[in-house]
Amino acid sequence: MSEISQTGAVRVGAADLADAEIDLSCRIPLLVLFGAAAFWLVFSALMGLIGSLKFHQPNFLANIPWLTYGRVRPVANDALLYGFLIPSGVGVALWILARLGRTRLAQPLVVTLGVKLWNFGVLLQKKKEKKRKEKKTIKRD
Q1: Is 120 domain-assigned?
Q2: Which of 1, 19, 98, 106 is the most buried (most CB within 10 A)?
Q3: Cα separation of 76 and 69, whole Å?
Q4: Is residue 82 part of a domain?
Q5: In this predicted structure, what is the pLDDT of residue 65?
Q6: Helices (DSSP H) in 13-107: which residue ranges?
Q7: How many other CB atoms are there within 10 angstroms of residue 4's CB atom?
Q8: Is the pTM of this model over 0.90?
């Protein structure tokens, strides 16, 4: 714990130093995790807003075939689940486990690479879903 001496100087104890080292080891992976989660949250909210507007005003963005209600709503739900909720939960779990275990994160760069691959997979899923639904539209016409 921190102690304040008679002169007003703060002495840093061993426990505070360990917490600072733990937080420093988790800093980059957690910034990437929570930054990407924030992006997917905003993306999901925008897709949900478009879906809600399409539900109430079907002619809104009617000239863009892949922005129909039936296509936008699942994208919003998937982006919220796979892009925001899971990475946020993983980030909180990493931080809590490192702090409770009183240990530094062993391979922060591997975690960061995994986060980037996860987000790349979420992005590919969105593009794949868009192409699959465009093919269904072409076959129906």
Answers
A1: yes
A2: 98
A3: 10
A4: yes
A5: 80
A6: 14-56, 69-78, 86-101
A7: 9
A8: no
Domain that holds residue 74: 28-140
Q: Examine residue 17 and state whether it is found in any structural domain, yes or no.
A: no
3 state DSSP class of 1: coil
CA distance 141 to 16: 66
Q: What number of helices (H) and strands (E) belong to the chain?
A: 4, 2
141 to each of 11, 22, 57, 138, how far by Cα in Å?
74, 58, 23, 5
Report yes or no: 21 and 104 within 8 Å, Cβ to Cβ: yes
23 belongs to a structural domain: no
Q: Residue 92 — φ and ψ, nearest 5°? A: -65, -40
Helix, strand, coil percentages for the chain (3-state, nearest 5): 80, 5, 20
Structure tokens at 37: 């989660």
How far apart are the C-alpha atoms of 39 and 127, rounded to whole Å? 17
- Could you read off the pLDDT tens digit of each residue along the chain, which spans 141 residues? 555 556 655 555 656 657 888 888 889 999 999 999 999 999 999 999 999 998 888 888 888 888 888 888 999 999 999 999 999 999 999 999 988 888 888 888 999 999 999 999 999 887 777 666 666 666 665
